[in-house]
Amino acid sequence: MTPTLLNYLIVGSMLFGLGTLGFLTRRNLILMVLSAELMLHGVSLNLVAFSRHYGHYDGQAFTVFVLTVAACEAGISLALILTLYRRHKTLDVHVWHSLGESSPSEDQVHGPRSMEPPAEPEPELPKLVPTGRVPTLDSEERVTHV
Amino acid sequence: MFDWTSLAMWTIPGGPLLAAVLGAALSRSKHREFASWLAVGGIGAALICALGFLWHFSQGGQAVAAGYTWISLGSLQVQVDLHIDSMTAIMLATVTSVSFLIAVYSRGYMHGDPGYARFFAEISLFVFSMCMLVMAGNFLLMFVFWEGVGLCSYLLIGFWYEKPEASAAAKKAFVVNRIGDFGFLIAMFLIWRTFDSLDFRTVFDHELLASVAADQPGTLVAICSLLFLGAMGKSAQFPLHVWLPDAMEGPTPVSALIHAATMVTAGVYLVARCTPIFVLAPEVQLVMAGIGCFTAVLAALIALTQFDLKRVLAYSTVSQLGFMFLALGCAGFSPELASFAVTAAMFHLFTHAFFKALLFLGAGSVMHGMGNVIDMRKFGGLRRVMPVTHWTFLCGAGALAGVPLLAGFWSKDEILAVVAAGFHHKVYSLYAMFLFGVALFTAMLTAFYTFRAYYLTFWGDVRIPPEAGHHAHESPPTMTYPLIVLAVAAVFIGLVAGPTGAFANYLLHTPGLAHGSEHGLNWIVMAASVVVALAGVWIATAMYKRPSGAPQRVARLAGSMADLSANRFYLDELYGLLIVRPLEGLAWLCVWFDRTVIDPVLDIVAAVPSWIGMGLRPMQNGLTTRYVLGMAVGMIVLLWVMLASL
Amino acid sequence: MYYLPIFLGCVAIVVALTATSRTRRVLGAFLGLGALVSAAMIWFSPSTVLVDNVLFLTFAGVAIGASGCMVTSRDPVYAALWFALVTLSVCGLFVIQSAPFLAAATTIVYAGAIIVTFLFVIMLARQAGKADYDRRSNQPLLAGCIAFVLLGAMLVYLDNGHVRLPSDNGTAERMTRLLPIPVGIEANPLSRPAADESFGTMRGLGRSLFGDYLYAVELAGTLLLLAAIAAIAISPKRAGGTI
What we know:
heterotrimer, A: mainly alpha, elongated, B: 3% strand
């Protein structure tokens, strides 16, 4: 690893780190996309440096593809950002969090619900003709005997 | 050449089974009325075949219809085959003829019930199970259909399942029967272990039995005791008799068919079928005689004071079953008595099926006319309102009471003769005399309570409960014709089959029953029987024919005895206190343990993932930057790991 | 000592991000400058050609400084312009690394197309005055720490590889294990410069792209087409001259 290569790798990683930082801290959607592009620059620089180092065009070819992807990404992200902007008239990324968990409701916080199962509704029984004497095992027969 | 015998044998259970399946399929269609014709047809086909076999085996012999091998497990081979011999032929004829008449009767009785098709499907299923039970050639198959009839009994007792009493009675019957079934099951295990077979022909082999009796007599005693326990459950013997009176919650034809004529006699049939084993355990037989006798007198005493017509008949059924077991048990006095005892018991079973079915159907006819009121205090003097019912009921009552020349007279007389034959026993002579005395007393009680019910229902002033409305008239022909046929049977069948020796000769062709010494008519016993029967009838006539204060005076005189009888000796309450309450306490304890120990533990276990989730929930807040932060941290960790591995 | 530039840079960025007054912004700028200088002093390994060193330091310094400004800028328009400067500086580095075509392409695509579009969108979506979401950044301390820890980890990684590689066979083996290079396979022969040719010509890159990477190039073209269609499909229908 020649010293020259190392210099470029260090610069590339610095660009990448600053891009990460921008992506993390900025709330403007457009600036977040720009930070991502900054990270791509860091990567491109790496590829070009290695390409030079090994005397091989692979790295430069890859950079061409990175460029392509960056162009696609920029086009689509701008279209998306415009759509989002029309919804809420803002570019703040914090507005868009509908994929998040809703805050826990009361019963979830306070653990299990009551142990009793919910009462079932009374089933509706068919009405049949009454049969026989309804036996009262206790009262009627015990009292009277002839 | 086509095997017509096999076809006819398979028709006997097959017809009712087909009727049951088709009837069940019809139960929700608009043609549900047709289910009754299916049942009548299926049982009728079985009846024709059964009568054919009854005639076919008049000179003895047996037939087997091969089915298939159900279980083949080492030495355990269980065949689903149908066996018919003389005893089976008699049982089949009894079962199918009574159930045919009852099916015809039910067409009128159940008319208009929403569960019409279900009723007939279940009745057919019962007949199928009962036929299979008596035609089974091994213990396991018998047990399966033993359970099958129990299930049908459960279904039919709880036929009006929305009535709390009916479903409670059904559960009670099922649970009490389970105790007996437990005995049967253990006995079956023991038999398999001892004889290495469950087949009747193998187990009842004389040489095998003799060798087992010589080697392990204790095992035989255990097997017999457990088999008898099974029979006690099914045939409602003390102390497992409590379910039968409650079973009257079912429709009356069910009471007549299952809980009087057929299913409850399955226990008697089991013991009769297993006579070759029981002969080798005379101790068990003597105990059986004692229990039968005790059950007979206990049930008769309870029946004295009941006002529910069906319950009177139910207790009389218990009492008559006690008589049958008394007869079977008396074989213990001497091995030569075995054939005689079995003949007497089976003969009583045979006649009892007819006259008890008749009595129940008569009671059903009364219920039908009285708007489903069955309390004898609420109606009376019905002999002019329902003449056919009155006359047929009188025939049945006479037969049950043992009025001379009617069916019950001959069979009960034979049982008494069997008991009397035990007088000659060297050791237990006194025991036999005691049993004889009690049996005679019970016979008198039987005559008394039967005619008490008869007079209370059909004599005195005409009283009709308001529930009857304009229905208070004779039942339709579809109900009265079966009554008339059964009445004719109740009057003449004893005379035809009993004193002529036809029944005994027929039954003794059964393999496994030795031809014992011929017993002629015992004139002394017969005279005693006539005297007590007529005495019972006379007392009942004196007390109940016209309204008088006599019953109340007797009750005051008897004091606490009458009280005990009216309350069924508090047996239900006793069981409730001794068995149900402790079990309920145990159940309560289990519930308490479940609620206070297991549930909280489970709740905690279930809450742990919830808590973990609550801890993790903030991470998933939907903010893109937070996710990127996570990715960055992940990348740091990855780099750190790579550095560490350098 | 070794981590001084990282620490200084972190402090500089955080101060600039959280600054409420011009003074603190200036303080942040100075700190950043200090970080750059110290980084150059500590990590820069000069080559023998002076011009190379000067050019590299200039372009690298401008690129990093401009990206720092871009990240901390409160006005999105300025941020976009800072980003253009970063792009231009990176293109300068590309040129030093014998990639003139890429330098040109990047300049055209980024500065000419992407940034103009971005600026256009920023202008369209602009609200009266500076928006709150531009003025207040998101968790600057935490994000700054994490980003710089990440940067430090990468630098340490590079440094370890650099220090240990030259003669230490065991370490070389471990590096190979980490980043395995296929042995005995002559990968992409068309991507090598021809024998009579110096590295970095357009001809060589073209041969590589349309030789070894022909399918990939075609795919990339298709991807661009699809992205264009998708952007048209996604973008909202305009009504009456609004965006």
